[in-house]
Amino acid sequence: MAKIKHIALSTQDVDATSRFYVDVFGMKQIGRIDHPAVRGYFLSDGDLNLAILNFRNDAAAGVERGKDYCGLHHIGFQVESLEAIAERLAAAGSARRDDVNDALDVGRQDRRYANVEVKYSGPDGVMVDVSETGWVGTATFNPQ
C-alpha cells in the first residue's frame, strides 16, 4: 500500500514558511533547491518529506495554479501534548481557528477525537491540525 511520504507547499516566502515548521514542529532542514524554475527547502521529521517551494514561473507551478498560488488546505501533526504545542504555536503567531473548530465541534479540552483535535492557522493560509491521538490508518494511531 502507498504511504504518504512527501507533501509540497507552494509559498511566496520560503524562509518564513520553512522557519515555522522547523521552529514549531522541530522538523529538520535536509536540503535546499535554487533552480531557475523553483527555490526552497526540504524538511523532514524522519518519516515525511515536506517541500517548501516558491515557483518562479507559471509553467513550473502548473498553469492551473500559477506561480502566485499558495497552497494546500491543512497538514496534520501528531503531538505529545496539545498544551505544549499550543504555546509554541502562539509564540510563532499562529492563532487557533476556533471558527473551524466550533463548526466541527472540536478543540475542546473535554472532547478528543481521532483525526482532528485542534486546528490553528499556519503560513500561507494552510491550516495545521494538531492531535495527541493521531489519525486512523497510521502506525501511531492511539484512540483514547
Question: Can you describe this structure?
Answer:
- The protein folds into two domains: 1-72, 2,3-Dihydroxybiphenyl 1,2-Dioxygenase, domain 1 (Roll), CATH 3.10.180; 73-137, no CATH class.
- It has four helices and seven strands.
- The protein has helices at residues 14-25, 58-61, 82-91, 98-104, and strands spanning 6-10, 28-34, 38-44, 49-55, 74-78, 118-120, 127-131.
- The chain has a four-stranded mixed beta sheet.
- The longest helix is centred in the N-terminal third of the chain and has 12 residues, at 14-25.
- The chain is globular and about 45 Å long.
What's a quick, concise take on this entry?
By secondary structure, this protein is α/β, with parallel strands linked by helices.
Topology:
Layout: E1 6-10, H1 14-25, E2 28-34, E3 38-44, E4 49-55, H2 58-61, E5 74-78, H3 82-91, H4 98-104, E6 118-120, E7 127-131
Parallel strand pairs: 1-4, 5-7
Antiparallel strand pairs: 2-3, 3-4, 6-7
Please mark out the parts with pLDDT under 50 across 5 or more consecutive residues, or reply none.
none
Number of helices: 4
Q: Overall 3D geometry?
A: globular
In whole angstroms, the N-to-C terminal distance is 26 Å
Give the spatial strand order of the biggest sheet.
Answer: 1-4-3-2
Oligomer: single chain
Number of domains: 2
CATH class of the largest domain: Alpha Beta
Find the structural class using helix and strand composition: alpha/beta
Second CATH tier, the architecture of the largest domain: Roll
- CATH fold description of the largest domain: 2,3-Dihydroxybiphenyl 1,2-Dioxygenase, domain 1
Overall pLDDT: 84
Would you report the number of β strands? 7
Largest sheet: 4 strands, mixed
Please state roughly what percent of the residues sit in beta strands, choosing from under 5%, 5-15%, 15-25%, 25-35%, 35-45% or over 45%: 25-35%
Q: CATH superfamily of the largest domain, called what?
A: 2,3-Dihydroxybiphenyl 1,2-Dioxygenase, domain 1
The rounded Rg comes to 16 Å
Q: What is the N-to-C succession of helices and strands?
A: EHEEEHEHHEE
> What percent of the residues sit in helical stretches (DSSP H or I)?
10-25%
